[in-house]
Structure formats: structure tokens, C-alpha cells
Fold this protein.
Amino acid sequence: MNEVLPNAEAPNAEFREAIAKDYEWGFSSDIEQEFAPKGLSEDTVRFISAKKNEPQWMLDWRLKAYRAWLEMEEVDWAKLDIPKIDYQDAFYYAAPKAKPKLGSLDEVDPEILRVYAKLGIPIEEQKVLAGVEGARKVAVDAVFDSVSVATTFREELLRAGVIFLSISEAIQQYPELIRKYLGSVVPQRDNVFACLNAAVFSDGTFVLVPEGVRCPMELSTYFRINAENTGQFERTLIVAEKGSYVSYLEGCTAPMRDENQLHAAVVEIFAHEDAEVKYSTVQNWYPGDADGKGGIFNFVTKRALCSGARSKVSWTQVETGSAITWKYPSCILKGEGSVGEFYSVALTNNRQQADTGTKMVHIGKNTRSTIVSKGISAGRSNNTYRGLVRVLPGAENVRNFTQCDSLLLGSECGAHTVPYIEVKNPTANIEHEATTSKISEDQLFYAQMRGLDPEAAVALIVNGFAREVLKQLPMEFAVEAQKLLGISLEGSVG
Amino acid sequence: MLRIENLHATVAGKPILNGLTLSIPAGEVHALMGPNGAGKSTLAYVLGGRPSYEVTDGSATFDGQDLLALEPHERAAAGLFLGFQYPVEIPGVSYLQFLRESLNSQRRARGEAELSGAEFIRLAKAQAATLGMDADMLKRPVNVGFSGGERKRAEMVQMGIMNPRLAVLDETDSGLDIDALRSVGAGINSIMRAPAKAVLLITHYQRLLDYVAPDRVHVLTEGRITRSGGPELAHQLEREGYVEAAA
């Protein structure tokens, strides 16, 4: 399975050295772009909608969001130092130049395939991999910049009745489903970034798993920012019908940039009765250089509605990238006996800032939630866990368990835990545990004395710290995530 | 094999080692005894290269190589094993993962081929069996929930897996009951009693020396060797105490 991620299998000195020098995936490729005019206005929204041949209702929906966005306030409650964003100084749409409809991967721009190969995600190998005995199939809806350029495994998924395609295509092919579910979990006005996304989302993914179907493979989308000054506004919508199951993997890397790039994605998950959705993320956007210059602003809204009884949504995230991370994957536990889980590793180094956590809103009876958050801070970074557990008056017999652990490397970083617990029903059973620790000199010396160099020793100790979360990840991602934690901490030992 | 000359070292500015000279030829086991605070553990840490233990004078060579110029992991790869008095917990990391990564890191540094997962597990199981340890314990996180005796046994299993040329064992006998003491002693003999290997056995008590017969015994007092002798010196120390015997 490691073949999916060749880099993860090369812990050699050259590899490490290459990464220590530069952000390894910091390159940009020359693919002809088609840009929307710079800046943000109603015309931008109309341009994007027209580019995508969208129906009138979709344009209206976007315009409504745009007008609402104009009225909204910036976020100021997070423990983040967010520079003023000049929304007029960015492009909101960039697509690889339109080509005839692609029938196979062979027709994909070789430059794009080359970029993927450099990223260690060769699409063509995905096919080979699918044929390998015992290897799980991974369907890749490859999002290159704003437009899906290749979709594999679609046929097999279709045979199972699973809809898995870009959201642009879904708007054309399944307008009734999109109209029904889009914005049903994250309303346009939820927050300023979600609202912006609703106005200008460029592309993303739509998944629908029909009643009783267990999705035959793990679904994986690799995102990549590749256009100078282009905000990235992905929109993901996952609908799990009654009794269905799907595991969705999302991972991303971004090329090096000097200017900050705004990434404001929205992910909505709608889970019906007895449905289960597992959503895993490895986030490795460019974090900026050691002095905090450049790097991605990752302002993401992810929310699941456990609408049906006994539905279950599990968020697992490994966040190592981005200059600023603002992200709270949440569960609205409406269905009776529904279950929400949040497993998170957030690692910050150098000047990175992360304010991340979850919201578990218990509405239904007998709903349960589990939160396990592992924050790792190094360098001069700031890492905040912010989590809300809310139990509404009608929610009888709610259970929540929260564990927040912070690990500090060095003495110039910060770790903060901000739990909000609002319980309106006395039958609730809420547990909260929190720890803060430092990697001890004892541990480091012990590991070094057995033969590990200081960086390997730190990586090992940090991976142990994060194990409870990493083991929630599908195998392919667990390997990458472990590697990533080590890489992200390079230079933090001194 | 190990040659220490006029070694001076400080911890937090305080002199602990004050001109220690000691030589261990290949094929020999030397015991280092002495009262609390004499600098026994400091010597072990200095030989390991622990940060914050500062060498202010003197030298230590390992097969002619300047030991003090190497990083701790380089000393390990060169064939030095340090058995800890207080083995450290590493939560979330299994012993198997820890030791496999450590061993392969050493092997890479020496230009040897890495062991595969299966090869490593075979080795680890064999070593655990030799030391009378349940191999399933190696699936548990490093030293988490281990009793004092289990930790020391695990140290010896580690030594068996690493197969070093020079072992510095810091009070490996402390916290052991008589059965554990016997198997740890047998482990030291089977792993380290070889013509090309050497051991520095740091201990308070004679009792481990009943199982691992030393070739030489040294008394450390106030940071330097104050007396050296054959195995009989250990018995004399046990009878008379350090102050009298060292006089």
C-alpha cells in the first residue's frame, strides 16, 4: 500500500535533506490558466457561474451568498493573528484550459500528470494498484486547481450506485439533489468564509451513497493549489442515505508561494438513518517559511448533520500545514442515538498558527460524541484547541468524552485549550480530560542512546503521542501522516 | 577497548568527575562501585554523551576513536550500549517499533543492511526468550506500566538486540528480585562475555557480581578512582563499606 505514497517509504538522508532545504512540494507548473478577472464583485460570481454553464438557480444561489457576504463581519474570536485580507487582490477562478471531454487518463495534460508524479501521487499507478491483490482500491477524483481533470473508478462506483463526481458536473447531472442538499448543513450565512465559498466556489466533489450500499472503495480527493494569487474555494457535499457507509480521504499539498493564499473550503456531510461516514484529512498546505513569510490561510468549514437515528460521522484530521488554520469539523447530532467523533492531530512549527477543534451539538436523545485532540507545538508557533460540547434541553442521556493533550517542543511555542461546555439537560454525562507536556530530555536522550538521531527521536516520540488519532486513519494515510509529522518538525530540534 | 584518561566533567557547573582514569581491555568485565554521589551515573551519562553533562578536561576513547566527539546516536552506532538506571517511558510507541527503528538506524550508520520486519521480530523474540521475558511485552509501549524489574529486564533484551561491543550498565541490578537478578546476570554473560567485547558494570552492591564475575573492581570516590583490584575487592567493600575500603 505504500506504493501510493513513494515518499513515505524513503526515510533516507537525501530525502530528509532535500526537505530541510525547501518545502519539497514547492514548485509551480506551467499549465495554461484561464483566469476570472482579478477581484471580487457580482461580475466575478457571474463569470464563474457562466464558465461552468450553471443553471439560473445556481447563479441566484451564488449571488444571494455574495450579497450576504458583503454584510458579514470578519472572524475575530479565534486566537489567531490574521492579517487583513484584500479580497480585491486575488483571482477567484482559474481552470486548466478547456479541453475536449476526457475519456481516459491518457488524455490528461501530461504536465498535470507530471505534477502529480512529483507529488508522489501518480494517477496511472492508482490503476495498477487497483489490480494488485489485497490492495484496496482508491478512487481519485483529482482536483487540479479548480476543475476536476480526471475521475477514475467512476464506472465501478456507478455499478454500486455510488455517485462520485465533481460538484460542477453534479450541478448539471443531478440538479435536484444539489438543490436539496447544498447549504443544508452549512448555511450560506454560517460564517464569513463559508459565505464567500458559497458565492465563488470553483469546484469540489459530490458523493451520494444510496440506501444500504457500502461504498466499495475508499474515496480520495487530492487537492492542489497551482495558480498564482488564486483563492481556492472547494465545496464538498457528501450524502449518505439510509444504512449506507462511505470512507472519504482528503489530502493536500500546495506549492511554495511568497504571497498568502486564501483557502476557504466548505464540506457538508448529510447522514441519514443508520448511515456512517468516515472523513479523513491529511492537510499539508504550504506553511510559510521559517520566518512566517508566505503560507496558506486555511479557513475551512466542515460540518456533518447526523440527521437520521443511529447515524454516525467520524472526522479524523492530521493538520501539519498552512500558515493559519481555522477549522472546526463538527457534528450536529440530531438523530436519536447518533454518534459523532473527532480525532485530531494539529502540529505547528516556526510561525504557524492553528485554532482548531470541533463542535458537537447534541439535539437527539442518547446521542454520543468522542473528541480526541492532540496538539503539537514547536518553534514559535501557537496551537489552540477550541471545542464546543452543547447539549440541548431535549437531549436525554447524552454522553461525551473529550481528551485534549498538548505537547510542547521548546520554550517559545504556545499551546492553549479552550473548551466550551453547555449542558441544558441534567441527564448528560460529560467528561473532559486535558494534559500538557513537554518532550523530555530524558526521552530524547534515551532514544538517541539507542541509535536514533535527534530528529528521528523527536518524530518517534511525537508519533507515539499522536498514535491514538493516527490509528483512526486508513492505512495509506497513516503512513503518510506519520512521515509528515516527522518532516514538519525538522529543524525544531536544536 | 575503553580508555578514559583524566576525565573531568561538570553538571550545571558543579564538578562531579575529577580526573577519572580507567581502562577496560577487550574481553573483560569491570565493576565500578562507590557510594552515592561519587559520580557513577555521571560517568555513564558522560560516556553516553548526554547533553548538560559537560566534559571540561581529559579524554575517552573507544577502540582508539574519540568517544567524546560523537553524538549519542553515533556512539550507539559505534557499538556502545548504555543500560539506564531509570529506563524512560515513551507512550504510544511499542517496544518493537522503537527497537526496530533504533537498530536499523544503527545498521544504516554502519553501512549494514536493515532488518526486515520479520527478521527483526525473530531476533526480538529470541532475545526476549533468553532473558525470560514474555515477548508480548514488546508489543506494549516502551516501559509504560512496566515494573522496575521489568524495565531492567527490558534493558537487557534491548542489549541483546543491539548486540553492542561495549556495554556501560548503570545499576542494572537495582530493583531486581533474586530471580530477575539471576536472569539479568545470565543475560549479561551470554550477550557480552566475548573476546571482542567489554562491560563496565556500575553497581552499589556485590550481589550482581555473584552472577557476573568481574575481572577487575574499581572504587569511585568523589569523581576519581581511588582503588582498583580483583574480584575480592568487591567482597571487601561489602564487608567494610566504601570509606574504610577506599582508605
Observations:
- The two ends of chain A are 34 Å apart (CA to CA).
